[in-house]
Specification:
Number of strands: 23
Structural class: alpha+beta
Number of helices: 8
Distance between the termini: 39 Å
Shape: globular
Largest sheet: 6 strands, antiparallel
């Protein structure tokens, strides 16, 4: 059986509403940094063909909104403290295999402040058709490609990890993950007043001792974020372009991060004391082996280890520590301390937990977008070559 038939069979075995067309699929490279920092552009970008004649532009990937926007293949200018854009209609292409004619997107006329350009690069590739706006969802390029029978399946697969970053459209490549896909139905009627619409049920999060951090039951989670926990103005400003669009979040946001950080059973053995970032208020771990070098450390340190796992539908997914949850010492962190990518949620709206880039870079993520006969699903798996284990170091 071909890899494509195998992956379709794996979808069919789990989703009774799975569909297949006679179309094809494409694999696109993602551009990702080798590790995360709190001071540089670290979001993933995907080369996308925009306009006539087509111009390849590296658009910032966002899996929690559907906005498509493009500027030029450089960061936006830093001189304009606001956003300005114009709705246009033209052709959008992916990998030279798919072309979507007469696709509406936003052409960005002006740039942003330095804060905003650090999280968006030359445009925005929203891969989440809104479940609350049928007209917007039907006009999304993924929906249009599937309705035209161009796609084999209504799915995308994503690897954000630097070992093999890629985006597949129309199929899931079984070479990208190990084992089977853990499918979770997304909320069919998300809270219209919530922070996120791409929500799903979460068992909980676990620390070093393998126990759940006590945040109560019936938890909801989302991937990426519409605002940084350090400043909600990012969200409000970027949404000025064309309504509702979000940026990929650099951390994991919890209802109360102190519940994790103040319990050594959850954190495991870490050198004390821990500190708060003097500018952003984020937790920092003592990483003294790096403190004798320059204030900005080029490579991430391996210790102390940040022990953290997400439990979804009965499966625990460990979040990589080095270069993901534990960031290199930077110019905005205290000397001898490394920022930790676990933060408080900035409000009490849904969901309870937000999984940003540290999660996305540690787990293979599939998205089965909604069609007439089926709601949306997220699928999770261990990336191939990740050597998953049930125990922290």
């Amino acid at each position: 059986m071909s890899p494509l038939l195998l992956l379709y069979a794996s979808i069919l075995s789990v989703l009774s509403c799975a569909e297949a067309h006679t179309g094809t699929w494409a694999s696109l490279p993602m551009n990702v940094p080798p590790f995360l920092t709190d001071v540089d552009f670290v979001s993933a970008t995907v080369p996308t063909l925009m306009g006539t004649p087509p111009q390849q532009i590296n658009l910032t990937v966002d899996i929690s909104s559907g906005l498509l926007a493009a500027s030029s293949n450089i960061p936006w200018d830093l001189s304009t403290p606001s956003f300005s854009g114009t709705d246009v209609t033209d052709t959008v292409g992916f990998g030279g295999l798919f072309d979507v004619a007469d696709q509406q997107f936003v052409y960005i006329n002006d740039g942003s402040t330095a804060n905003y350009s650090s999280v968006i690069w030359s445009g925005h590739l929203g891969l989440f058709p809104s479940p609350l706006n049928a007209a917007s969802a039907s006009a999304h390029p993924l929906t249009r490609l599937y309705q035209s029978s161009s796609l084999l399946n209504p799915v995308i697969g994503m690897r954000f990890d630097p070992a093999n970053p890629k985006l597949t459209i129309g199929a899931l490549d079984p070479n990208d993950y190990e084992g089977t896909i853990n499918w979770v139905e997304m909320t069919t009627s998300p809270d219209p007043n919530g922070d996120y619409y791409n929500t799903f049920n979460l068992d909980g999060v676990k620390g070093y001792n393998g126990e759940f951090v006590p945040f109560g039951g019936n938890l909801t989670a989302a991937l990426s974020s519409r605002e940084s926990s350090t400043s909600s103005k990012w969200s409000r400003a970027v949404r000025l372009i064309a309504g509702d669009f979000t940026v990929v979040f650099l951390s994991i946001a919890l209802p109360n991060a102190d519940t994790y950080f103040l319990n050594p059973n959850f954190t495991g053995p870490i050198p004390m004391p821990i500190e708060l970032d003097p500018e952003l208020g984020n937790v920092q771990y003592n990483c003294t082996p790096d403190s004798s070098s320059a204030p900005i450390v080029i490579n991430p340190t391996q210790s102390p280890y940040v022990a953290f796992a997400a439990s979804i539908n009965g499966v625990d997914y460990q979040i990589d520590s080095t270069g993901n949850l534990l960031r290199p010492q930077s110019g905005i962190s205290s000397l001898g301390y490394c920022p930790v990518g676990i933060r408080n949620r900035s409000d009490t709206l849904t969901p309870d937990v937000v999984f940003g880039l540290p999660f996305l870079r540690s787990v293979y993520v599939a998205y089965r977008f909604p069609t007439d006969t089926c709601p949306g699903y997220y699928g999770f798996a261990f990336p191939s070559g990740s050597n998953p284990t049930n125990a922290f170091p």
